[in-house]
Input
Amino acid sequence: MEGGAGLIGGGSTEAGSAPDAARADEPGAASVDILDSTGRLPTAHVGWLGDHLRRALGLLGAAGEVRVRVLADQAMSESHARFRGVEDTTDVLTFDLSGPGRPLDVDVLVCLDEAERRAEELGHPRQHELLLYMIHGVLHCLGHDDHDPEARARMHAEEDRLLRAIGVGAVFHAPGGGGSA
Output
């Protein structure tokens, strides 16, 4: 997508922002910036999401930048219509600005309202569902696909593998149901 970096922007001073400039000097480390546009996530949850996403990226050996904006239903519906032509909300939209063979340069939009609905339905914390959406978006940028049943199964197995490895546990294939990412 052209100009996608402007979708989220860097260096924001929005409430709920969790940039990790202090960690940018780690060799091969991915930079993660999470902006809560809803104002509904406690700062501790934003920090938790950033830390866990960074850990998942480390397990993937992924370097570069990942910017995440947390949206409410209306803003996500507007983005879904604008970028995908679909007049409804969705859980995650991903914009890969990296280019082949380059470090990650990714904008991810995630929907807090959808995460809350799914988390309540599945009986886990909303931040686990949000983290699933973030990892799902990044995996798309790393070549994973979910457009046919076999590829979808591989992608969701990788999500759960990463979530277990960073101590969260399976979210997509959690007991009692499947995720929506």
About this structure: The helical segments are 5-8, 43-60, 73-84, 112-122, 126-141, 149-165. The longest strand covers residues 64-71. Confidence is low (pLDDT under 50) at residues 1-6, 10-25.
